[in-house]
Amino acid sequence: MLAKIHITLKKDVLDPQGKVVANSLNTLGFETVQDVRQGKYIEVTIDEEDTDIAKQKLNQMCEKLLANLVIEDYSVEIE
Amino acid sequence: MKSKVIVFPGSNCDRDVAVAIKKISGSEPQMVWHKETSLSNSDLIIVPGGFSYGDYLRCGAIASTSPIINEVVKKANEGVPVIGICNGFQILIETSLLDGALIRNNSLSFICRDVYIKSENQTSIFTKKTNIAKMPIAHNEGNYFASDETLKKIVGNDQVAFKYCNQEGEITFQSNPNGSLENIAGILNDRKNVLGLMPHPERAAESALGCDDGKYIFESILS
Prior knowledge:
- The structure holds two protein chains of two kinds.
- By secondary structure, chain A is of the alpha+beta class.
- Chain A has helices at residues 16-27, 51-66; strands spanning 2-9, 40-45, 72-78.
- The mean pLDDT of chain A is 96.
- By secondary structure, chain B is an alpha/beta fold.
- Chain B has a single domain, classed as Rossmann fold (3-Layer(aba) Sandwich), CATH 3.40.50.
- Chain B has five helices and eleven strands.
- In chain B, the strands form two sheets. In chain B, strands 2-1-3-4-11-10-9-6-7 form a nine-stranded mixed beta sheet, with helices on both faces. In chain B, strands 5-8 form a two-stranded antiparallel sheet.
- Chain B is globular and about 45 Å long.
- The mean pLDDT of chain B is 96.
- The chains are: A alpha+beta, B alpha/beta.
- Chain A binds chain B through residues 12-14, 16-17, 20, 64-66, 68, 70-71, and chain B through 57-58, 61, 65, 94, 99-101, 103-108, 145-147, 150, 179.
């Protein structure tokens, strides 16, 4: 099965890249853009039958490696 | 002095730090490949700078899963002094031996220049011989971040090893090169036997390199 993982910076962590992207969008004429937050999208293909077990393992993967929980939040979606 | 330098794919300051330690301590450090699993008889463990695993995923994240890291954590917990320099600091943060996180420089630029740092903690084995020191930084992700709660803990517990300052030793907004919280350039663990810092003391460890302020950190450990 395929897991789609989104990793985003926590709200209280400054995202300088997102700020620069927001400024550029404003410069391009998208004046209604107020804020941009940039994150990561990771696809993991996993050989599991049981969705609950897969979800449990994917959460562990995020906590152990894929995300840094000091600065990032994650969400896991399984197809 | 039995010192060990851990080498990961992409480490590039491993030999520099080995040269500095040899010159200051008189004994040759042992280079330890990251796939090894033992660090017995170590008086000092260095996690050097570089770009381990090409900074994939997050700086230091992949290296923090290397086989040798379990042993580094074990030795650190036994009280063996461990220093992580630059990417080594990022790796130690990823292992959770040190608190907080190192995020992208607020300028979004790779910064490579000399900075001044000042010892905040003046009693640890790493900082007792240092005061205001000039040494280079060379990083893209050196912006120290911690939650309010963590910051309060490390400040309260005297775990801030170094802060960026100006030549006079004043901690100013202008002397902060990367946006680090409270100008933090280096921190210690709770027990004060693990140091992580973004500046490179090994690149300023003898006058032939233009500056030898970095040697005081190594001398401090050896004294």
